[in-house]
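Margin note: ligand = zinc ion.
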Amino acid sequence: MSELSELYQETILEHNKNPRNFREIEDADRSADGNNPLCGDALRVYVDLEGDVVKDVAFKGSGCAISKASASMMTQTVKGKTKEEAEKLFEEFHSMVTGGLDVETEENDLGRLKIFAGVIEFPARVKCASLSWHTLNAALHGEEVVSTE
Ligand code: ZN
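Resulting structure:
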């Protein structure tokens, strides 16, 4: 097993067991439901904005380890970022897991999210990894429901 996939396994397991920002935000400025029918992942993402800044972000729901770990790391990453920065990260993440961005050779701001580059080898898992990001993006655009199908 390569070092990156070992790190990937460990990180997924750890965040699945102990997801960060796994809670509701009462009276959130924005929220959206994300569904991945292929796997059965169903998440709700809550966003509180202060001007253009994501002041707080959290999620609730159920899903596989990858969808939960990805949501957990998504909330850690975008908290405190501007909407524009969050949207750029969404685009980079989406591009990475669908093969449009080579995180090793092309410039990006994904940081530790790069461990998800490994899902590219498991096409059925790409939607699990990107669900929370699609849902965040929908919430930021004022949409309430998003489905990966
Ligand atoms: Zn899943």
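The mean pLDDT is 94.
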